[in-house]
UniProtKB/TrEMBL annotation:
EC numbers, comma separated: 3.5.2.9
Organism phylogeny: Bacteria, Pseudomonadati, Pseudomonadota, Gammaproteobacteria, Cellvibrionales
Gene3D superfamilies on file: Glycoside hydrolase/deacetylase
Keywords of this entry: Hydrolase
Source organism superkingdom: Bacteria
Entry annotated with the keyword Nucleotide-binding: no
GO molecular function: 5-oxoprolinase (ATP-hydrolyzing) activity
Broad EC category: hydrolase
Listed name of the protein: 5-oxoprolinase subunit PxpA
Length: 249
């Protein structure tokens, strides 16, 4: 019997209504990654997201990003490494404060946007972030892109991790995620997305962006919560996994 973790980035809106929309996705998730004031998130969204996660019985984690709300953390700003690490730490501590008030224990950390991409490509940045996390948040797992720099850094520092895969993105021939700038890097056919999710869960073969067979497994599948069809996608994913004999954990 196979099991898989499903994660989703949430709490990235501004209002209670945004959080209510997020809550409709939660029954199909294993964990949510809650924006904590850097690229998005405020007192309302943090508190409500944590409360909704508690009610749904799913794990809650911190989703820090570059402190650049104007660009939603999607570009790499000119920040010193010291300032960046300080900001990441402050964001996680902020969510921990709200979590304590909601009687929710955080379980993990997943980086956001450009920071996620930069850390997965830069060994030095990945190791600096892992040193911070291992020192200040030793009990929180890191959710990292499988086969990239953050995974290697987590293993180097013996920090608990979850390997993440994407059902709607193509991979390069050497198991790395194909950059969005590459034509065909985003899978448009939903049936292919579902098939790749099953393959990543079970360790079965699937095709790279160049049509070559790849074979590796992950611990968690990312579901994009900002997709207008996120709820129906989550339902279909759960149904497909169950049909393949896979349960979410």
């Amino acid at each position: 019997m196979h099991t898989i973790d499903i994660n989703c980035d949430l709490g990235e809106g501004e209002t209670a209504e945004d959080c209510a929309r997020d809550a409709r996705i939660m029954p199909y998730l294993s964990r949510c990654n809650i924006a904590c004031g850097g690229h998005a998130g405020n007192a309302t969204t943090m508190a409500l997201s944590l409360e909704n996660a508690r009610k749904a019985g799913i794990a809650a984690g911190a989703h820090p990003g570059y402190p650049d709300r104007e660009n939603f953390g999607r570009i790499s700003p000119a920040l010193s490494r010291e300032s960046l690490l300080s900001s990441v730490g402050e964001q996680i501590y902020t969510l921990q404060k709200y979590a304590a008030a909601a009687q929710v224990e955080l379980t993990h950390i997943k980086l956001h946007g450009a920071l996620y991409n930069d850390a997965e490509a830069d060994t030095g940045l990945a190791e600096d972030l892992l040193r911070l996390i291992s020192r200040e948040f030793a009990n929180l797992k890191v959710l990292v892109l499988a086969n990239a720099a953050m995974e290697r850094a987590a293993r180097k520092y013996r920090h608990p991790l979850l390997r993440e895969g994407f059902m709607d993105r193509r991979y390069l021939d050497y198991n790395q995620l194909a950059p969005r700038s590459m034509s065909g890097s985003v899978i448009q056919d939903f049936e292919q997305c579902l098939a790749q999710a099953v393959a990543l869960t079970t360790g079965k073969s699937f095709l790279s962006i160049d049509g070559r067979p790849l074979q590796f497994s992950v611990d968690s599948i990312c579901l994009h919560g900002d997709n207008p069809e996120a709820e129906s996608i989550a339902q279909s994913l759960q149904q497909e996994l169950l049909c393949a004999g896979i349960h979410t954990c």
